[in-house]
Write a structure and sequence with these properties.
By secondary structure, this protein is α/β, with parallel strands linked by helices. About 50% of the residues lie in helices and about 20% in strands. The chain is built from 14 helices and 9 strands. The protein has a 7-stranded mixed beta sheet, sandwiched between helices. The chain is globular, with a radius of gyration of 19 Å. The two termini are about 35 Å apart. The relative contact order is 0.17. It holds the Pfam family HamA. InterPro entries: AbpA_HamA_C. This is Anti-bacteriophage protein A/HamA C-terminal domain-containing protein.
Amino acid sequence: MPIETNPFSKNFLEVLQHSKTYKVNNATNNLELFTCQINANKFNYSQMVESLLEAVAYFSISRKKLSEYQSSPMKLSQRAREKFKNYKKNKGELGEFLLFCFLEGHLGAPKVLSKLELKTATNMYVNGSDGIHFLRLPNGDYQLIFGESKVYADLTDGLRDAFHSVRDFINETSGSGEKSGINYEKHLISSNIFNKTWSPEEEAFIEGLIYPSTDNSFNVDDAFGIFIGFEINITDEQKKLSNSEFRVAINKQINDIVTKKIKNIEKYISENELFGYTFHVYTMPFTDIDKTREIILENLIK
């Protein structure tokens, strides 16, 4: 099936440091820890933003619209930033965008739809996943991956709330009382969005992922991609270290934080009865997280 990841998400990975892969639940799930590169004892956010600019269009514009704009790259860029600018009023948007880039660029899971497309096509539907991707497994089977992202000061809070959201999504419960959940979202995609987004051949393939049948030559399992941005505090003493010492100290600090959370993740999976689902978890530290989030978003749309 010729649905591929966008060519720019890997640019993002080239300017990040992949610190470590953690195994969760006896290697059933992975947690990937990434960090910005460090320059002069500071995270180099400007380099990260530069690497993300081209991917904005692939996140915010449908595949069909992308093909229509092929001969007008400036118009495509303008249209993508307009959509992203309106969308950034929601504080979750940076996490959703970074999750999209990790799932496409690192995991190799092409986007079916972003949350921005879902909101646009379904009158601001806000209770569902933070994007939908698919992943072809080595044995020829597939995962349909639903996204969940949190950008919180505290990593524990972010992980806990993310797994609670996944539980509610699976159980189709919403505090607002509105329709939501995994089956409702599959219905939305199938009934409202296909004709605007996919070719007939692509539509048939995606339909087979959403509603697998015995006619398929492959099996499909629901899975989840999770991104958690969290805050780290850098002390005045750390700032005074040499560049090489600073890198070692920060890498140890963030790995110490994440290592302590692996048991938490296993507890959340158990408490919420989420065995059987595969989780692709991505984490990334930020300094002064609320201010940094705003700066990154402003630079992505200016």
